[in-house]
Amino acid sequence: MALFWPRAYLAFVFIVLYAPIFYLSFYSFNSGGTMSSFDGFTLDWYKELFSDSRLLVIVLNTLIIALLSAAISTIIGVLGALAIVYARKRLYQHILLSLNNVLIVSPDVIIGASFLILFTIIGINLGFTSVLLAHIAFSVPIVVIMVLPKLEEMSSSLIDAARDLGASRFDILTKVILPYITPGIFAGFFMALTYSLDDFAVTFFVTGNGFTTLSVEIYSLARRGISLQINALSTLLFLFTIVLVIGYYFIQKRNEKTAVGVRK
Amino acid sequence: MESNNRAIYWVPYVLWIALFVVAPILLIVYYSFQGLDGEFTLANYRNFFTPVYLTMTLSSFWYAFLITLFCLLIAYPAAYFITRSKYKQLLLLLIILPSWVNLLLKAYAFLGIFSTYGAANSFLEVVGIGAKQLLFTDFSFVFVSVYLFIPFMILPIFNALDKLNPALVYASRDLGASSWTTFRKVVMPLTSSGVKAGIQAVFIPALSLFMITRLIAGNRVITLGTAIEQHFLVTQDWGMGATIAVFLILIMVVIMIATGTRKKGVM
Q1: Domain spans of chain B, in order of start
Q2: Which positions fall inside the ABC transmembrane type-1 domain (chain B) (predicted)?
Q3: pTM value?
Q4: With an 8 Å Cβ cutoff, are B105 and A34 in contact?
Q5: Does B233 sit within 8 Å of A79, measured CB to CB?
Q6: Domain positions in chain A
Q7: Residues in chain B closer than 8 A to A215 (CB atoms)
Q8: Which one of B31, B77, B99 has the shortest CB-CB distance to A262?
Q9: Is residue B42 within 8 Å of B29, Cβ to Cβ?
Q10: B8 to chain A: nearest residue by CA?
Q11: What b/e readout covers B97-132, taking b as 16+ CB neighbours within 10 angstroms?
Q12: Ramachandran assignment for A216, one of left (phi > 0), alpha (psi -120 to 50 degrees), beta (any other)
């Protein structure tokens, strides 16, 4: 009896948490065209989705932006983590780390608005380039945060030993440090990828008329009202998310020390 | 040679900081002093302290407060029961999983659920209350926001509760404290760091996310985030938008100091 209320409460929380997601997926098979009365089973919405070449281009754009921004931000982020760990004074370390975390804690609206001003002033056309730069910019600090613990736990005697054995600075970096922090680098890359795939607010600010990512497209579709094509799309994305989470879970297992991350 | 190699480490990173961290903040502050004509002015700040913007700020605060409060009330027992469960790792994963689903899609689901003939109204009919206008009300805004932010409240509280040494709870009970006293004097103080982190993770987005208000609340609710988006992308009054952004940043800093996470690693 003592166990009943906790279980009932948790069951209630989980039902409320998952009901909307399943509600969406359920109506993606509705031939009726609304999200309130289920008329019959159909796969039409999925067919429509796959024959929509505009949407296909948008999905491709989203993937290209995500992969490119994750790759570039991983490089900058790893260098940044090295810069922080090997900074000459504690004060520099502290300053770099504080500046690093500014973009992590800033609300998306602020990041979006300030980047919009920045790109306009520099004269970068709003579109592919501005979205890519923005995604790189907000992914870098996440990579740094994921790589830093690995670098910090690395014993400095490893580097001393390599130097004693005659390794050059470059050798130490590529043959000692980088292999050691590889799990952190993968975790960082993966987080950057998912942040980029999921971002809406920042992209919404810095994208022009010609260029759209999936999140922005979903928003503009949803503002026009209910269309079961979005339901079909969300079902596919949900499945994709589960695959990503499983992938992330395995990277985490290899990388046990880092804490489990939640999406922004 | 050596110093050259060192430069390769920090040059790209420091450039990134200069261009995408420091410059944007300075630009926001600079633009907040610009009028529509591009001249230096304090008019935006004067405008902010007129009743229109002050009521907007206060109501945005009020909604964020309500959202955070409901999140906390629902999340604390949930996190507590999860730590007590045999399957806590699995349950935790199940809490985290929905937070990975695109926020817009979850908000969109409520367009269907709260619609005139949607699931929520069917339920109200069955219970006997009768159908109501749910969409585009402040109720739906608070409900959907609580729904979206719950995982971010549960997670830090779970972490704090999980770290709590159960021996302390047993000791308190052995010494004759009731379970309520034990909770109030032992469990609550020791998990306050988790609660603070949760409040921080919910309150700031609740002030600033503009897409939920746009999709769910229509124009009934205007938060600070909605106002910024409106000024930048609709009315093109960047100066006023930047001024609101400055205040949002200030509020954020105050909240971060108040909920004091001076530890490393904000994630």
Answers
A1: 51-259
A2: 57-259
A3: 0.88
A4: no
A5: no
A6: 57-255
A7: 102, 104
A8: B99
A9: no
A10: A79
A11: bbbbbbbbbbbbbbbbbbbeebbbbeeeeeeeeeee
A12: alpha
- Please answer whether residues B91 and B233 qualify as being in contact, where contact means their C-beta atoms are separated by less than 8 angstroms: no
* Spatial CB neighbours of B36, under 8 Å, sequence gap ≥ 6: B237, B239
Q: What are the tokens at B108? A: 């969109």
C-alpha B106/C-alpha B126 separation (Å) is 25
The per-residue pLDDT string of chain B (267 residues; one tens digit each, 9 = 90 and over) reads 344 456 677 889 999 999 999 999 999 999 999 888 888 889 999 999 999 999 999 999 999 999 999 999 999 999 999 998 888 888 998 898 888 888 999 999 998 888 888 888 888 888 878 778 888 888 999 999 999 999 999 999 999 999 998 899 899 989 988 888 998 899 989 999 999 999 999 999 999 989 988 888 877 788 999 999 999 999 999 999 999 999 999 999 998 888 875 444 433
Measured between alpha carbons, how far is A69 from B114 in angstroms, rounded to an integer? Answer: 37
CATH 1.10.3720.10 fits A57-255, yes or no: yes
Q: How far is A160 from chain B (nearest CA, A)?
A: 16
* Token pair of A194 as six digits: 């998912």
Report how far residue A55's alpha carbon sits from residue B117's, in angstroms, rounded to the nearest whole number.
29
Q: Which amino acid is at B267?
A: M
Alpha-carbon span A164 to B233, nearest angstrom: 59
Residues in chain B: 267
Q: How far apart are CA A156 and CA B223, in angstroms?
A: 49
